[in-house]
Amino acid sequence: MNGSRSVSMVGLLLIFYLFSFEASAESSLPTLQIDRLSPLAVSVASQGESYSLSLPNDFMNKVEGVYDDVYIEDLDGGGVGELVFRLGGGSSNACSKVLYYKAADRTLAELDFGDESLCNFKVRRNYIVSSYREGAVWKENVYRIQGGEVRNYFFVSCVGCGEVKRRMYHSDRSFTRLLVSDDVDFERRVPLVAKVSSLRANVFTSPEISKRTNKYLIQGDEITLLDFFKDDEGWIEFRFSGGVTTEGWLRCSDLEYCYRSTATAEEPSNV
Fold first, then answer.
1. Which phi and psi (to 5°) does residue 258 adopt?
2. pTM of the prediction?
3. Do residues 228 and 237 make contact, with C-beta atoms less than 8 angstroms apart?
4. What is the pLDDT of residue 242?
5. What is the CATH number of the domain that holds 226?
């Protein structure tokens, strides 16, 4: 009996220690706070002390008189929080610019999203999903932030079309193209595949009858879909992984089922 009580006591002490360690680690994180909105003043609290932070002049010159809201949100899941400036404009693309805290020198710096903009964004399991409307088509970028660096994981276009065009970016900034299913959750979108139904399906270098090659696929070959092109014929760009990898275009009539886009101008998915 005494042995059981001793084991139970050790277990409780271990749980208490782990909880205290976790709470201590969280409390040691710096915390951004907005002290005043006009003129804007920001500070950081760290280990019981508070420090005023200077707002970068070049950044403020870009957003001054343009942003209509500023708030703190944890975009990278690090627990510190980032300073988000929501830009005005009233269009369907509500875009933002962001400052993050650099603990090493207690400064604020802008997060660089490259050539893209951060619009209509949502944070989902430490991913940042940015969506924007271009013409009649909704497009998305899926990012992660690590150590102040923004990494673009996916770029997708034609959200809501039935089939989504995706670029999967690699660490060397190269990317792989493919079509994926059109799910509201970007993590549930899966690559689209199809099987060849014709006994012999000619491969084309582009979606034109005159661009036929000597290559062909046979009935039952399964392909990964990369893109589509709609005309009277209907075409699918594909990748076939057999003994060697083959890429090109096939006519829809050579496939068991041909995915076709039905582009609309609907509201973006809540990913």
1. -115, 120
2. 0.74
3. yes
4. 84
5. 2.30.30
Range of the domain at 174: 119-191
Q: Is 16 left (phi over 0), alpha (psi -120 to 50) or beta?
A: alpha
What is the rounded distance in angstroms from the CA atom of residue 149 to the CA atom of residue 259?
37
Lookup: tokens for 63: 């957003």
83 contacts 72 by C-beta, under 8 angstroms: yes
Residue 156 lies in a domain: yes
Do 167 and 216 belong to one domain? no
Under a CB-based contact definition with an 8 Å cutoff, are residues 102 and 148 in contact? yes
**pLDDT tens digits for range 92-149:** 888 999 999 999 999 999 999 987 889 999 998 889 999 988 888 888 999 999 888 9
Q: Residue 15: which residues within 8 A CB-CB, separation 6 or more?
A: none
Name the domain count of the chain.
Answer: 3
- pLDDT per position as a tens digit, 166-190: 988 988 888 989 899 887 778 888 8
How far apart, in whole angstroms, are the C-alpha atoms of residue 109 and residue 86? 16
Among 160, 191, 222, identify where a domain stops.
191
